[in-house]
Amino acid sequence: MVAAVRDPAAFRRKWPDVEALAADFNRDVSPEVWRSRLAGVEAVVNCAGVLHGGRGQDIEAIHATAPIALFEACLAAGIRRVVQVSAISADDEAGTEYALTKKRADDHLRSLPLDWTVLRPSLVYGEGSYGGTSALRGLAGLPGFSPLVGDGSASFRPIHIDDLVETVARIVEGDRFARQTLEPVGPEAVTLRDLVAKYRAWLGFAPVPALAIPMPVMRLAARIADLAGGGPLGRASLRQLEFGNVGRESATTFADRIGFTPRRMDDMLARRPAQTQDLWHARLYFLRPLMRTVLTLLWLGSAFAGVLAPVASYATVDAAFSSLGLPSRPLALAFSIVDLLIAVALLLRWRPRWMAAIQLAVVGGYTVLLTVLAPGLWLEPFGALLKNLPILALIGVWAVLEEER
User: Fold this and answer.
1) Distance from C-alpha of 247 to C-alpha of 201, rounded to nearest angstrom
2) 323 vs 199, 278, 318, 320, 374, CA distance in Å?
3) Residue 191 reports pLDDT greater than 90
4) What are the domain boundaries of the chain?
5) In CATH terms, is domain 1-120 a member of 3.40.50.720?
6) Fewest beta carbons within 10 Å, which of 355, 359, 375, 405?
């Protein structure tokens, strides 16, 4: 088996026995790029996908252009077995860029003289979580109430990742699924309301009232979420939710076609009870954007304060700089520019690891410099320097939470 990933070195640290090669669906958009990678390969499984574009993710390339190039390369290399893991909502009626780009690749693959199989699964869940399932856990972990999109009646047929992997394995190992489109789904339809309740029970939290959020409010919230980076709370997710994730075929039809019955969500959750890290993840899910927002506002406030505040408001610091022959006002303006740049970078979610280091360096530098020049600030009643300690801790926690993979 060969894995095509963006960072082969990081992949090998997790799976040292699996061969990995470097690939990036944002850039690898021609068949020639893929042909040299297909030597010795007998079957190809494509499961690349993103919920929306932006921040270095080209959804057109990832969902359509690069997969189509890969499929054409398979045709040229004589590799007949190709499995495309698409989405149950990859339909023109869904109307989202996510759905339309997925469908474009599906349609192109189905037009080729290959032994292709297109899989259109419903919600995929597992022991870990990412994207939509992380959002569900976050909703389940909120204290006091469980907010729902609309009346919470949107339905899914959730399938466990192990059953989806078993599906792919059966397709790759045999030929009876060639030139077919399958909808891998679980054995039961589950509403959004039920999903949140199931995750809440799995996490060990007591039941709480459900809070129905009207769709106009959700659409406004989704627009705001898109400005902050989108993710599973953005407009694309909302439209996919409205379109539906149940599929056209029954769960029995899929089970009959694939040759086994996927397991119930209740059974799979009970098989692996929630651990401490699952509780933390659920509780921290909505705290992460709150931390990012608070830090952004902190740096913005610091930037504007440095520009607008009169010299008299920081007389102690001014006296310390003056004793060294340093002009305090130009320095305050320079520091304000630095603070503003940090705020903008946080707002754009630019390189979180770098931004964590920069923030720690700047706050730490401010603290050390002012400790040397004006140690009396540590004793001020409003904690002018003392507040830097929890700020440093907040930056450290935010840095950990921003590293999703």
Assistant:
1) 27
2) 61, 54, 9, 5, 11
3) yes
4) 1-120, 289-402
5) yes
6) 405
